[in-house]
Model the fold of this input.
Amino acid sequence: MGGRLFDDRLVYKMCRGIDEHPVTLADLSAAIHVWGLPVRSPAAEEWLGHGVLSAEEQEWASRLTVADRRLFITTRGVLRLLLGRYLERNPRHIGLRKDASGKPFLSFPADSGLQFSVSHSGDFGLLGFALNRRIGVDVERHLPDFPWSQVAQSWFAPEETALLSTAAPARRMALFYSIWTLKEAYAKALGQGLALPGQSFAVCPFGEGPRGLLACRSNESRGSEWIMQTPFCDRTGYSAAVAWEAGSIELTVRCFSLKPDGV
Done:
């Protein structure tokens, strides 16, 4: 994309990693892009919030706690920057709305076929992009005090709870988060999130390369095949996953970090 779309140099200084990985919408015809986003800098919050977010998004952010506000502003701001890069548009002029389930979608331009998903946890965010296919991403910070065994009993399918029960005790929490992120990524791709009954489908968290649904007892995926992968987070204490509608595509992972020069 020739040239920058607007003159907020400080914003682009914060996001030099985007410039280091040139991408176009055409790239997504044969790939899924997943971007990792460490969230650390208060300066990123200020510059992205005032330079890129809409007035409605800024108003929403103002009602959040300090930690949640930083996560929202930074991930939403970088989402707009990346959408602007893929669509070759000014990020401020991109329309984002939420559907009935609360999932954000691209409302303007509405005919690009670009699909995206966003997740954040702790101080890390994940953004996934696809073309003409549904996509979902999820990242979760491992919390030692989180009641994961109770959550597994209430939301995991029988096949998944069986996997947990047979795993070595020292591996069960990590295995829980691997299953959890795969399930959430799939549920988010469907646009339902935690509203989708977790017992209605099971995922396979093992094996090299793409994974899929181990079992599905509902009509949610009728007519579609799904691929899932987990190798998207090299940060200690986090798990992440992506799920997308299958096709003859190669998965491409793109990662970048905010670089607060001069801060």
About this structure: Residues 66-87 form the longest helix (22 residues). The CA atoms of residues 25 and 61 lie 29 Å apart. Residues 1-8 have pLDDT under 50 and may be disordered. The domain at 141-246 is CATH 3.90.470.20 (Ribosomal Protein L22; Chain A).
